[in-house]
Specification:
Layout (H helix, E strand, L loop, with lengths): L1 H32 L7 H15 L2 H8 L6 H19 L3 H4 L2 H25 L5 H36 L4 E2 L7 E2 L1 H31 L10
Antiparallel strand pairs: 1-2
Helix pairs in contact: 1-2, 1-6, 3-4, 4-7, 4-8, 6-7, 7-8
């Protein structure tokens, strides 16, 4: 319906504005302060980044109620990966926030999202530019695995701090013998992260073939 389409357009516009601001801010800060800006990335743009990622949870709801025709599982994996890395790994450990890997992650995430939300906004209006469509469907194929590698590196960097501070580790008092050592949880999540990457990449290739490999009937200039 027109109302749902307008709602999705406004949602994409909000996300585009947020990620564009982050991406532009990162570039300007790097051009101004050089490498010194990298360690301060999280403190400069972390709030907006967290708001954008929390807002992205709505995309799962959009798919569940049927107003977005994207596949649920790949999108769910991509969103939950970011939520876990951003809020559980980076936000909870101040020592990790100053690492260069945070800047790399934010750069990859926002580069992908600026392109994706630009494409989505135009698609809501029935506008399909072939170069933008190609970029949206192709850019994620090399950049998504790079972002997963950066996520894995961020987890590895955070492990010594989780071990030292005992963050999220739980040990129940007697008579219970149950305990959760959070670094072990993160190590197991690394396996899930890379297994999910294989599934998501396969889905990205299938989407690209569906849109670009069977003709360009949707990819017309308007």
């Amino acid at each position: 319906s027109f109302t749902m389409n307008m709602y999705l357009f406004v949602y994409d516009l909000m996300q585009f504005c947020g990620h564009s601001w982050i991406f532009t801010n990162m570039i300007i800060r790097f051009m101004t302060f050089g490498k010194d800006s990298l360690a301060d990335t999280f403190h400069s743009i972390g709030l907006v980044m967290r708001l954008c990622q929390l807002l992205s949870v709505l995309e799962i709801l959009h798919i569940l109620i049927g107003i977005d025709k994207s596949r649920l599982l790949p999108r769910f994996l991509q969103i939950t990966e970011r939520i876990i890395i951003l809020f559980v790994v980076i936000n909870s450990q101040e020592e990790v926030q100053g690492k260069y890997v945070v800047c790399v992650l934010f750069f990859l995430w926002n580069l992908l999202d600026v392109v994706r939300y630009t494409y989505n906004m135009l698609a809501r209006m029935g506008i399909y530019y072939l170069p933008l469509t190609w970029l949206n469907l192709s850019l994620c194929i090399p950049l998504y695995p790079l972002s997963v590698l950066a996520k894995g590196f961020a987890i590895c960097v955070s492990l010594p701090y989780f071990e030292s501070f005992g963050t999220y580790s739980i040990k129940l008092p007697f008579p219970f013998t149950f305990s959760i050592y959070f670094p072990y949880v993160l190590k197991m999540y690394l396996i899930v992260l890379f297994a999910g990457m294989c599934f998501v990449i396969r889905n990205l290739f299938s989407e690209r073939m569906a849109h670009l490999g069977t003709g360009n009937n949707k990819n017309k200039r308007s």
